[in-house]
Amino acid sequence: SSIAIDGCTQIISRSWSATDDCGNVGTVSQVVYIIDTQAPVAVTDVPAEITVECSDDVPTYDVVFTDNCDQVLEPSAISSIAIDGCTQIISRSWSATDDCGNVGTVSQVVYVIDTQAPVFTNHPENVVITCLDEVPAIPVVNAEDACSEFELSFFETTSEGACPIVITRTWTAIDECGNENSIEQTITVVDNEAPVFDPFT
């Protein structure tokens, strides 16, 4: 038998012969072509799709491939990012090519979403005052958001009618993805002073 290589094909030529007592020779030949059509296979478990919060880390993977013929593989990775409204879409793929040009690929799509509202870093306390006291000044309220910019608005209302009077102060923070959070401060104005008669009137 003999072995030859043609590109990625191994060619094995075999022959068998038999000679009878009269010197007649019978021969049988065979050619075996050994080819590689199987792509490398990933042995790393990579989910096809995942969704993560924008405040969390995107998982990373060290993808390992095996191949039926090629023992030395050099995987490569590529990724791209697209934006769809408030969702960041990361498309990732890992691939390995064997010596015969067969390519094995693993792909994944990561959706990065923002469902977390801004968080207030301080909260003014509720207050009870008398009608003779001065209404406290509007305090400075701060908030923060892990993923995007936000708008902070303020609104104040005063109840109508008899005592007590309630002043309600509301701060609202809305981020770019529409996630909203609000806090309130109430100032209750009470009248606990009885009327005083003026004997001179």
What would your notes on this structure say?
With 201 residues, the chain is mainly beta. 0% of the residues lie in helices and 52% in strands. The chain is built from no helices and 15 strands. The chain has a four-stranded mixed beta sheet, with no helix packed on it. A hairpin with a 4-residue loop joins strand 14 and strand 15 (180-190). The chain is rod-shaped and about 160 Å long. It starts with a strand and ends in an 11-residue tail after the last strand.
Structure summarized in a few sentences:
The chain is mostly beta strands and 201 residues long.
Radius of gyration: 39 Å
Classification by helices and strands: mainly beta
Uncertain runs are: none
Number of helices: 0
Number of strands: 15
The coarse silhouette is rod-shaped
Strand content: over 45%
Q: What is the terminal separation in angstroms?
A: 135 Å
String of helices and strands: EEEEEEEEEEEEEEE
Q: Biggest β-sheet, characterized?
A: 4 strands, mixed
For the residues shown, what is the average pLDDT?
92
For the largest beta sheet, what order do the strands appear in spatially? Answer: 5-9-8-7
Helix content: under 10%
Q: What brief labels describe this structure?
A:
201 residues, mainly beta, four-stranded mixed beta sheet, 15 strands, 52% strand, rod-shaped
Write the layout of secondary structure elements.
Elements: E1 2-6, E2 9-19, E3 25-34, E4 41-42, E5 49-53, E6 65-66, E7 76-84, E8 87-97, E9 103-113, E10 119-120, E11 127-130, E12 143-144, E13 150-158, E14 165-175, E15 180-190
